[in-house]
Design goal:
The protein has three domains: about 1-230, Deoxyribonuclease I, Chain A; about 250-290, no CATH class; about 290-340. The chain is built from nine helices and 15 strands. The chain has helices at about 15-25, 40-50, 115-130, 155-170, 205-210, 255-265, 270-290, 290-315, 315-340; strands spanning about 1-5, 30-35, 55-60, 70, 75-85, 90-95, 100-110, 135-140, 150, 170-175, 185, 195, 200-205, 215-220, 230. A hairpin with a 2-residue loop joins strand 5 and strand 6 (about 90-95). The longest helix is centred in the C-terminal third of the chain and has 24 residues, at about 315-340. It is globular. The two termini are about 25 Å apart.
């Protein structure tokens, strides 16, 4: 089971729903937390009804700021809502076909220092009320230590100590991560560049004992200035499995497709033979016509991930410009994919 958190910087962007579906297709999260949606109320419900999840909790926005959504599929997890504020959603999670239950808290910490203090105090109060396995996840808007930031002003010692005190009182630990070091960037050139690790998962010891193989992955940042962060509770084992044949609607838009169909069926009078021929020819034809779209997208994502790892260690204007060009190229490929109905 996977949990995904992502600060999308606004859910009204035309590409938002496509991006959520793509992340869901690639990483199959049972729970998806979306932060800084800037939308609440009925409008939020209208959008989440169109996403690939059947249940949701929304917090209210503060004017045009904030907005925290927790989405899940009820056939995979049973969620009991406990309480929420503009900065937090507290729930109890029970995994279907399992005896394990644990607390899950989704976080979007306010950019305002005073309101973050309110959040830290709320979390400490929650810790005093329970001794269950517990996960905290989201955008905490506060670097914890010097190594969590590059550029700009130094990390505030007083603010980070308050954050650390909250985590200690909640018995929270960081289980590490893989992927690019920083989860947010201001996207400026090298002289003004700021990068921070502020989107995180924290867990307590009793949750670690339930899921000792769990790992956190910083995914490639490409549709926001924050990267999605993935918690794999039981990391996947790669299995080479032949995909079943699937008819693609986009094939009908290509003028050469009717000829492929007629040739496959004209050479074999028996239905079973004709179907077998069509399946083989259609798969080869699809690889030539549309397969390059998937290959290009995967190649760009891999290059972006490598660049973002490098920028976190030793940034340069060359790498930042290359990242910007690749992001534009990725948008073109995704638009092509969407128009083709892939």
């Amino acid at each position: 089971m996977n949990i995904l958190v992502w600060n999308c910087r606004g859910a009204l962007k035309p590409s938002f729903q496509r991006n959520v579906r793509e992340l869901t297709r690639c990483h199959n999260p049972a729970i998806f937390v979306v932060m800084e949606t800037k939308i609440g109320g009925e409008r939020a419900r209208e959008i989440t009804d169109r996403l690939p999840f059947d249940s949701a909790i929304h917090t209210e926005t503060i004017g045009y700021a904030g907005g925290l959504w927790m989405l899940w599929n009820s056939d995979r997890v049973e969620i009991t809502a406990l309480a929420n504020t503009e900065q937090e959603i507290h729930t109890v999670v029970k995994v279907r076909n399992s005896n394990s239950s644990w607390l899950f808290t989704a976080i979007y910490a306010s950019p305002r220092v005073e309101e973050r203090h309110v959040l830290w105090n709320n979390l400490i109060k929650v810790a005093e009320m329970h001794d269950m396995p517990w996960v905290l996840a989201g955008d905490f808007n506060e670097p914890l230590m010097d190594s969590d930031k590059f550029g700009g002003r130094a990390v505030s010692v007083s603010r980070s100590l308050l954050f650390k005190d909250c985590l200690d009182k909640c018995s929270m630990i960081d289980i590490g991560f893989s992927g690019p070091r920083f989860t947010w960037t201001n996207k400026r050139n090298i002289q003004a560049l700021i990068q921070e690790r502020i989107d995180r998962f924290f867990v307590n010891t009793s949750w670690c004992l339930l899921f000792p193989e769990a790992r956190v992955v910083h995914l490639t940042r490409c549709h926001s200035d924050h990267c999605p962060v993935l918690l794999e509770m039981q990391p996947r084992v790669a299995v080479n499995r032949k995909k079943p044949f699937k008819f693609q609607t986009c094939w009908l838009s290509d003028p050469t497709f009717p000829n492929l169909v007629s040739q496959s069926w004209s050479h074999y009078p028996m239905l079973a033979d004709a179907i077998d021929c069509f399946t083989k020819e259609a798969e080869k034809w699809n690889r030539m016509k549309f397969g390059n779209v998937f290959a290009r997208k995967n190649n760009i994502m891999a290059r972006l991930n490598g660049i973002q790892r490098a920028v976190a260690i030793r940034p340069s204007n060359f790498l930042l410009n290359l990242e910007s060009e690749l992001l534009k190229e990725l948008d073109n490929v995704l638009n092509q994919e969407e128009k083709s109905g892939l």
